[in-house]
From TrEMBL:
Organism: Kibdelosporangium aridum
Entry-linked Gene3D superfamilies: alpha/beta hydrolase (3.40.50.1820)
InterPro entries, per the entry: AB_hydrolase_fold (IPR029058), Hydrolase_4 (IPR022742)
Protein name, as recorded: Serine aminopeptidase, S33
Gene Ontology molecular function: aminopeptidase activity
Pfam families, alphabetized: Hydrolase_4 (PF12146)
The organism's taxonomic lineage, starting at the top: Bacteria, Bacillati, Actinomycetota, Actinomycetes, Pseudonocardiales
Keywords tagged on the record: Aminopeptidase, Hydrolase, Protease
Domain Serine aminopeptidase S33: start-end pairs: 13-72
Length: 104
């Protein structure tokens, strides 16, 4: 699945921003200009069916996680991604799939 995303590769560490309901990848636009994050690779994306991303046939937390993992892994090596989400409780499956991923 091709999720709509804003991406910047500029460091060995990747920070992933995941929006909550009613928001989109643009919610994190200021992060891409923040001097404090200049040495980090960044990824902000629209979940399936939100913003500019196409919908899934079956909507579930697992399907959202699969689509998100696919996008993040496409950014290549970069150690353990750090992620920030408004869906911390709903996306607990991320920690099961990628035990080295860390939340902010």
């Amino acid at each position: 699945m091709n999720l709509a995303a804003a991406q910047r590769r500029s460091g060995d560490h990747l920070i992933v921003f995941m929006h909550g309901i009613g928001c989109a990848k643009e919610s994190y636009a200021e992060a891409f200009d923040a001097a404090e994050l200049k040495d980090f690779s960044l990824c902000a994306f629209d979940f399936p069916g939100h913003g500019e991303s196409p919908s899934l046939r079956a909507n579930s937390v697992e399907a959202y996680a699969d689509a998100s993992v696919e996008l993040i892994e496409s950014m290549g090596p970069g150690g353990s991604p750090w992620w920030r989400t408004a869906w911390v409780g709903r996306l607990g499956c991320w920690s099961r799939r990628k035990s080295t991923w860390r939340g902010l």
